Amino acid sequence: LSAVRVLKCCDTGVGKSSIVCRFVQDHFDHNISPTIGASFMTKTVPCGNELHKFLIWDTAGQERVRSELRW
């Protein structure tokens, strides 16, 4: 099992949370609430004979949040 870290930083209101929700839950919500601070989700994806676990940080799109996150 390998871990892939994904940090989504972008402007507010561009659809970061919608993309993460679609990837992790295979669902699209037209009325998704704005992220406050940051959210964290995981998804394990099989690829051939390997498993890849995605560790996804979804930020609120605010510059201060970007500077606060550290790996």
From TrEMBL:
Entry-linked Pfam families: Ras (PF00071)
Any GO MF annotation of the entry: GTP binding
UniProt keyword terms in alphabetical order: GTP-binding, Nucleotide-binding
PROSITE patterns: RAB
The keyword Transmembrane helix belongs to this UniProt entry's keyword annotation: no
Record-linked InterPro entries: P-loop_NTPase, Small_GTPase
Nucleotide-binding as UniProt keyword: yes
Coiled-coil region: none
SUPFAM superfamilies the UniProt entry points to: P-loop containing nucleoside triphosphate hydrolases
Protein family per UniProt: Belongs to the small GTPase superfamily. Rab family.
The protein's name: RAB31, member RAS onco family
Natural source organism: Ficedula albicollis
